[in-house]
Amino acid sequence: ASDVYKRQAGERSARLFAERALLFLEKYDAARAGEVLREGLALYPRDATLLALLAELRVVDALDFVEAER
């Protein structure tokens, strides 16, 4: 799916990076979602959507569900 987004987008918009990151998050691939967000933020460092998604990703990564269940 990521390759389809890359091919169909003649331009690299912040929304494109956000949508790609969300696809990876839906597939529980937080590492790849983080890569996409960092790539997008390199081009659009003040984009609110990308910043919010990265913050959300960091919060989820910081949660220790195994420990919380004990």
How would you explain this protein's 3D organization?
There is one protein chain. The chain has 70 residues and is an all-alpha fold. It is built from five helices and no strands. The chain is elongated, with a radius of gyration of 13 Å. It starts with a helix and ends with a helix. The mean pLDDT is 82.
How would you summarize the topology of this molecule?
Elements: H1 2-8, H2 14-26, H3 30-43, H4 48-62, H5 65-68
Helix pairs in contact: 2-3, 3-4
Please sum up the structure shown.
This protein is an all-alpha fold and 70 residues long.
What descriptors fit this protein?
mainly alpha, 70 residues
Task: List the total number of helices.
Answer: 5
Percent of residues in helices:
over 70%
End-to-end distance, in Å?
Answer: 37 Å
- Average of pLDDT: 82
Evaluate the radius of gyration: 13 Å
